[in-house]
Amino acid sequence: MKIVTSYQKLLHSHSIRDGHPVFQGWNYTDSELKQWFTQISTQQMLDTAQTYLNEVEAIVNRVEAYFETTLPGELVLIPSMGDIDGFARYDRGHHTVMLGIDFPDASIEYLRALTAHELSHVYRDHSPAVWGFLGKPLGQVTRDEYLEATTGREHLISEGLATLASQAIYPEFPVHDHHYYDLDEMNWCFSNDVKINEALERCVKESDPDPWKFYRPGLVAKGSPSRTHYYWAAKRIQNWIQSTHGMTLLKAHALPADEIRAF
Ligand SMILES: [Zn+2]
Description:
Layout: E1 2-4, H1 6-13, H2 21-24, H3 30-40, H4 43-67, E2 74-78, E3 86-91, E4 94-100, H5 108-125, H6 143-149, H7 152-169, H8 175-179, H9 183-191, H10 193-205, H11 228-243, H12 249-253
Parallel strand pairs: 1-2, 2-4
Antiparallel strand pairs: 3-4
Helix pairs in contact: 4-5, 5-7, 7-11
Bound molecules: zinc ion.
């Protein structure tokens, strides 16, 4: 995968024009960029970004070794501007992963796990069988068609697999790092497993499931964190892999959502 270090250029020039076209399209101004680097960024944020820049090649190599392939597309490293963490953007067989590497409170462990997570989406999205039902080569699938074809079930499968891939690639990190939770949020999920299961079971039984609503904190019950659907899907897919003869996490990544009978 090609690594594009927009962050470095923008840090020195404070000029949006030096950013990747996707970043340019988000309409930040030069003065907002300058303010971000000179007034809002803390030393800790600048240091974490620098550590990541020094490591990024090794991180991508580790992820690609896990997937046993060179991943297509580009990984674009940008200032987070306080908003952007990780975002994998598909268009006509090409992938652009935008990664804000100076997110406030981000640690290097968080960025490693996030990279593994986003690149798992890239691997899955470039596995032809996943989108086989569209009946055309991936290079002809536009961004709009891709978004239209991403059902609630595919979203759950894809996020569950990405959470598991992050754990498989960085098993030395505590589990809450792979869910982007603090310890309290992770423990909330462990203690309220039954409530999470009931809410997601109800969701997937609907005729057109909407798991995206689980990005909202407090949806499952008072105090529930965001993204409980990642936690739920990862757990269910893990159980399915373990109970399915010959199945592995890598093989599951390349299967259409309907063939992963985890829920
Ligand atoms: Zn994801």
